Amino acid sequence: xxxxxxxxxxxxxxxxxxxxxxxxxxxxxxxxxxxxxxxxxxxxxxxxxxxxxxxxxxxxxxxxxxxxxxxxxxxxxxxxxxxxxxxxxxxxxxxxxxxxxxxxxxxxxxxxxxxxxxxxxxxxxxxxxxxxxxxxxxxxxxxxxxxxxxxxxxxxxxxxxxxxxxxxxxxxxxxxxxxxxxxxxxxxxxxxxxxxxxxx
Length: 200
Known about the structure:
about 200 residues; about 40% strand; four-stranded antiparallel beta sheet; alpha+beta; six-stranded antiparallel beta sheet
């Protein structure tokens, strides 16, 4: 796919591993202005603090946080801020669930349709939060929801916005990517599965 610029956009990647199996989460942020190295650093700092306070407690200690990479995607070959997270892994010490087990939070904007909705995964769901083979407890779902609401608030306080990035319209690649601000988070108790997180 050819490079697609997205004005004021920063891609944030959290690189992780679990028992040597690689995984990552990707988020997109509206920097609120032209992207500079200072803004990249500041966005990375917001995510780093949030991982420590809100994200790490959701994840089993078998999950390792390897890098936070913030990239300017408003231009080709954009600048990056790369750091090792302050908290280097999940802080829940319960028993691990299967590697494919993932919990999903749905990220909603003001608009409907897949161009305006996103998903984000929580890996390493501790077994203690499973109520059966297909569900987590409502308490865990609520904690995940609160964690991502906190991320929205923390970014907003810092002058940024977590967004859904739309690259296509009617199956045709947009000339310029479109960011739409996420205003709410929806969680249920259903477990999702990601085969690429297994060792096969």
